[in-house]
């Protein structure tokens, strides 16, 4: 087994899906968390000047979804057929489109960006949510297994569930119109390896 | 075994579908190249999984999202790198490119005539900073890869096609915009002179986008 070192900020955000893939696959990895104050020094050593980065026997891979797909594919967590894998990818990219719009509110709300949170919420948050989450609900209904693709958990289940719980926790009631999303998140988080990780992982907002 | 049927549906342009067309043509796979007018799209929208195009249908089964489509086809036909690690790097560079593309898209939409805007101001205030953030990285990547005519590894991958298509679009409307990145231009020129790709580019319909 290669030696895996995963570098990210001490948050869940875009990196948590990778940590959860490792946990679900029961593959060891070093969970390196770089504090903001230490980041400038480390930045130039990364391929794209960004995190997360995964080192595989010392060789880096940047970009969260490239990393996620790389590890998930090797451990049966990326769909059982090429077409299923493609649907996992499609939903991940759809989530990324959602996040690109939603962050216009979310980043102000979380304090990363300056701005008028209420105005941003009215302009971006609801339309982003209501464009994206119906697709998730529909996919859950059509797929019928309780998971988003196929009949077992894939990395898209990990991504969507963690993000939904984070949003719902910070914005209580925001996902009330999407109970299926909340139920899906609960199901994923009940998977023993994930439940254990959630219990033991560092607490971050 | 019998080859599946492929149908690709998109607007009448290159933009987010062209790489899929190129992969299929390079692999010599027949496909239905369906182009939807802006006028006809609204009534078709709700029949698609995500209300968006491009859409790939493989034996009638739908797959949305351009990169999912490109990666799926690239894997089937040998354009996704020579190892899992290389494939991950193809994915990583494509996602980095997508981050840049999201920033420059408002400028392109104005240039292509889909939105109103002050073209010169947008080029100066939006496109230029976006370029200056991303293209130095791409220039370094081309050089670090040995100026071998590819951005990752030493065989043609879908991220080569993605970047080459974008550079072509930029050159079509903003000539000289990328002149500070000779290694990128050199790499793109090598990509587009791949014989079968050159053939496709020469005979394809000319479109604004």
Please write out the topology.
The complex is a heterodimer of chains A (205) and B (209).
Chain A: E1 4-8, H1 16-25, E2 30-33, H2 39-43, E3 53-56, E4 59-62, H3 64-74, H4 82-109, H5 117-143, H6 155-170, H7 179-189, H8 192-200
Parallel strand pairs in A: 1-2
Antiparallel strand pairs in A: 1-3, 3-4
Helix pairs in contact in A: 1-3, 1-6, 1-8, 4-5, 4-6, 6-7
Chain B: E1 6-11, H1 18-26, E2 32-36, H2 41-45, E3 55-58, E4 61-64, H3 66-77, H4 84-111, H5 119-144, H6 158-173, H7 182-192, H8 195-203
Parallel strand pairs in B: 1-2
Antiparallel strand pairs in B: 1-3, 3-4
Helix pairs in contact in B: 1-3, 1-6, 4-5, 4-6, 5-7, 6-7
Account of the protein in words:
The complex is a heterodimer of chains A (205) and B (209). With 205 residues, chain A is α+β, with helices and mostly antiparallel strands. Chain A is 57% helix and 8% strand. Chain A has a four-stranded mixed sheet with strand order 2-1-3-4, covered by helices on one side. In chain A, helix 1 (16-25) crosses helix 6 (155-170), helix 1 (16-25) crosses helix 8 (192-200) and helix 4 packs antiparallel against helix 5 (117-143). With 209 residues, chain B is of the alpha+beta class. Chain B is 56% helix and 9% strand. Chain B has a four-stranded mixed sheet with strand order 2-1-3-4, with helices on one face. Chain B is globular and about 45 Å long. The mean pLDDT of chain B is 97. At the A-B interface, strand 4, helix 3 and helix 4 of A face strand 4, helix 3 and helix 4 of B.
pLDDT under 50 segments of chain A (min length 5)? Answer: none
Helix/strand-derived category of chain B reads alpha+beta
Mean pLDDT of chain A comes to 97
What sort of overall outline of chain A do the alpha carbons produce when their principal axes are compared? globular
Measured as a percent range, the helix fraction of chain A is 55-70%
Q: SSE order of chain B in H/E notation?
A: EHEHEEHHHHHH
Structural class, from helix and strand content of chain A?
Answer: alpha+beta
**Going across the major beta sheet of chain B, what is the strand order?**
2-1-3-4
Low-confidence stretches of chain B: none
Number of strand segments of chain A: 4
Task: List the chains of the largest interface with their residue counts.
Answer: A-B, 27 and 26 residues
Main sheet of chain A: which strands, in order across?
Answer: 2-1-3-4
Helical coverage of chain B, percent range: 55-70%
Q: Ends of chain B: how far apart?
A: 37 Å
Radius of gyration of chain B: 17 Å
Q: How is the quaternary structure best described?
A: heterodimer
* Gap from first CA to last CA of chain A: 32 Å
Helix and strand succession of chain A? EHEHEEHHHHHH
């Amino acid at each position: 087994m290669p030696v895996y070192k995963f570098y990210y900020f001490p948050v869940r955000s875009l990196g948590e899906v990778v940590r959860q893939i490792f946990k679900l696959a029961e593959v060891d990895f070093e969970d390196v968390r770089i504090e903001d104050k230490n980041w400038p020094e480390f930045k130039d050593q990364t391929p794209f000047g960004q995190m997360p980065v995964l080192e595989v026997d010392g060789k880096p891979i940047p970009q969260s979804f490239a990393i996620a797909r790389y590890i998930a594919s090797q451990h049966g967590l990326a769909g059982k057929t090429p077409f299923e894998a493609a649907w996992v990818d499609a939903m991940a990219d759809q989530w990324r489109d959602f996040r690109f719009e939603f962050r216009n509110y979310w980043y102000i709300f979380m304090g990363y960006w300056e701005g008028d949170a209420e105005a941003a919420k009215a302009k971006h948050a609801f339309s982003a949510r209501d464009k994206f989450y119906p697709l998730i609900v529909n996919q859950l209904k059509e797929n019928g297994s309780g998971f988003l693709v196929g009949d077992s958990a894939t990395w898209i289940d990990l991504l969507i569930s963690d993000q939904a719980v984070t949003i719902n926790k910070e914005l209580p009631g925001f996902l009330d119109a999407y109970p299926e999303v909340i139920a899906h998140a609960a199901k994923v988080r009940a998977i023993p390896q994930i439940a254990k990780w959630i219990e033991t992982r560092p607490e971050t907002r | 075994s019998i080859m599946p049927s492929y149908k690709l549906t998109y607007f009448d342009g290159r933009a987010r579908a062209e790489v899929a067309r190129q992969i299929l043509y390079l692999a010599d796979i027949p496909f239905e190249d369906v182009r939807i007018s802006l006028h006809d799209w609204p009534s078709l929208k709700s029949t698609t999984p995500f209300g968006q195009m491009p859409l790939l249908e493989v034996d009638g089964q739908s797959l949305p999202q351009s990169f999912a489509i490109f990666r799926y086809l690239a894997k089937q036909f040998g354009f996704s790198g020579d190892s899992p690690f290389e494939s991950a790097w193809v994915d990583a560079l494509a996602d980095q490119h997508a981050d840049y593309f999201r920033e420059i898209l408002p400028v392109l939409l104005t240039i292509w005539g889909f939105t109103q805007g002050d073209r010169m101001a947008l080029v100066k205030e939006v496109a230029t900073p976006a370029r200056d953030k991303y293209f130095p990285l791409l220039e370094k990547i081309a050089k670090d890869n040995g100026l071998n005519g590819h951005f990752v590894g030493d065989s043609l991958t879908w991220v080569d096609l993605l970047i080459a298509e974008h550079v072509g679009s930029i050159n079509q409307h903003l000539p000289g915009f990328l002149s500070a990145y000779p290694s990128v231009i050199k790499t793109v020129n090598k990509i587009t002179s791949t014989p079968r790709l050159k053939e496709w580019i020469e005979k394809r319909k000319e479109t604004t986008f």
